[in-house]
Amino acid sequence: MAVFKHAYKGYDGPLTPTWSRFLILPRYAFEEMSSKRFYSMFFLVSMLAPLIFALIIYIEHNLSALKMLQIGNLVPIDPRFFLNFLGWQSMMAFFLAAFVGPGQISPDLANNALSLYLARPFSRAEYVLGKLSVLLILMSIMTWIPGLLLFILQASLEGHGWLGQNLRIANAIFFGAWIWILLLSLLALALSAWVKWKPMAGGLLFGVFFVAAGFSGAINAILRTQWGNLLNLSHLIGAVWSSMFEQPMHRGSGAVFFRVHGEETPIWCCWVALLAICGFCLYLLSRKIRGAEVVR
Amino acid sequence: MAPVIELENLEVRFGERIILKKLNGSLTGRSIGLLGPNGAGKSTLINTLLGFHQPFSGTARIFGKDIRSEAKNVRSLLGYMPENDSFIAGMTGVHFVRLMAELSGLPAEQAMERAHEAFFWVGLGEARYRNLGTYSLGMKQMAKLAQAIAHGPKLLFLDEPTNGLDPPARARMIQLIQEIRDRGDLRLILSSHLLRDVDECCDEVLILKDGRIAASCNLEEERRANRKFLELETRGANGTFTAAIERLGCEAAAFPNGRMKLVMPDGVEIRQLYALAADQNVQIRRLNHKRDSLEDIFLKAMEVPNGGV
Question: What is the number of domains present in chain A?
Fold first, then answer.
């Protein structure tokens, strides 16, 4: 209908599949983000580390380059190398979550937009999944996707034998990154849902990590135990990565953020604590994501 | 006409509080008005039909689809214009409506086309690329209407659509609602405190009081009915007089200062009223023929003890 025919009419055209509708939210979010220079710059900066790591792999396999630089062996390309990469990129992902995460749900709550979303054939779960996928997609591009590309680059330069022997590294990059970005995304969304002021929600995300880390250190020191580590998210992630990469995290490996200090907490306890945090975030989201607020 | 909404012992509770108390009924009108004082349960009923609240017991059906077991299918038939300021921050008007249409299942291209059409239809064509945050209250109301109809729903919920509108904007909104109603392919549920809005737009009305249905009335039939509506001013009338009138077969509602409104059935003559008044020593000081207005229906419904018809 031409726009000059100002009359209401029904719609009986094609519809999109129900399962794909949650992807509308990230599409709109990316459209908005692409118009902001800060996000574009940040994203470009976050791609510097993968480029440097790729360069190291290339030089390591290029004898003439090594001769030119007059070094025998630049950096060993082993699980620790990939763990370092994942650590640095995960720190960048953390900053991204702190910038992007708070803007996901809080504006919708502040502007009563949830009733508009949920009055459609669009469930609460799809809404959360849509908002979650904004962060998951962005952080995937920063973490496990370049990680696996580096792994493939190394495998292609090293030969098939290396690939078969080190397949666990690829698994560790993929699953280790997913645990981190899922935890970060859920935390960022839960804070965004409970704190309507965006800067406050971003600040709280830092608080959850750094204040909780300090608090856990204090518990450990006062009670002479290691169970306070269960409150330290970076310790939990560090311990899980350590088991996945089969590398100790004590000796300055990985990003400084994920080093495991002191005694190690049993790995199953770390998993349980991470699951409990994710579950708690989902509970917080389920309390807040409603079409209409109930005043009891 | 097939029912739009069927209520079947619908009960909604918030904690211990019972908000909707076993509602039963069937609404068939093209345009249904939802009336009631604050706290009567109007918004809770709309929110329950939209799936925002789960019924404690009973259920409701919209176009025959159960709101509990087919919630998503039900919502694919609905458009909703909420009462409060509701929009998405940092978006232009047309992007907002396009997003809402896409979430309702329209492909991106069609959603964009329909968003433009909807904006022109509500009279905001020139403002469609402006940020929603810069819209006036009246423009926001129109933008909310645009998002509610862009995807071509079968049933439209309008919650206080004329809230905060100046007289010309109100007239425009009423005109748009009447236009939708008169097309006939989209049913309306209009919740409003303003009886005039409901009177101008609706052909059926559901009045809620204390979580119960206090009255349900087909305004169209009422308007067509050839019944005798009388307005009396009396002196000395009391409950006995009202009861005696009702025994004659009249529907009667008593108001302060001896005012009464009656609906006379066929076969009852006015002189019988005078005879009754003389018997009971009641003076009829004034007698007017008057049609029952929506206000009368509403006030009468409010007098029903504990709600419920």
Answer: 1
- Chain A, 90-119: which have a CB under 8 Å from a chain B CB? 107-108, 110-113, 115-119
| Contact status of B106 with chain A (Cβ, < 8 Å) | yes
- Domain region containing A75: 41-288
User: Does the ipTM exceed 0.90?
Assistant: no
Query: Is A121 a domain residue?
Result: yes
Q: Residue A7 falls within a domain, yes or no?
A: no
B54 touches chain A (CB under 8 A): no
Q: Which of A101-115, A132-146, A202-216 has the lowest mean pLDDT?
A: A202-216
In whole angstroms, what is the distance from residue B32 CA to residue B9 CA?
Answer: 20
Q: What is the pTM of this model?
A: 0.84
| Residue A76: Cβ within 10 Å count | 9
Q: What is the CATH number of the domain that holds B233?
A: 3.30.70.100
Number of domains in chain B: 2
Nearest Cα of chain B lies from the Cα of A120 at a distance, in angstroms, of 5
Our CA-based measurement puts residue B166 at a distance from the nearest CA of chain A, in whole angstroms, of 22
The CATH number of residue B113's host domain is: 3.40.50.300
Which tokens is A269 given? 């306890």
A118 closest CA partner among B112, B67, B75: B75
User: Measured between CB atoms, which of A11, A21, A290 is closest to B103?
Assistant: A21
Q: How many CA atoms lie within 13 A of A121 on its CB side?
A: 22
Same domain for B182 and B56, yes or no, is yes
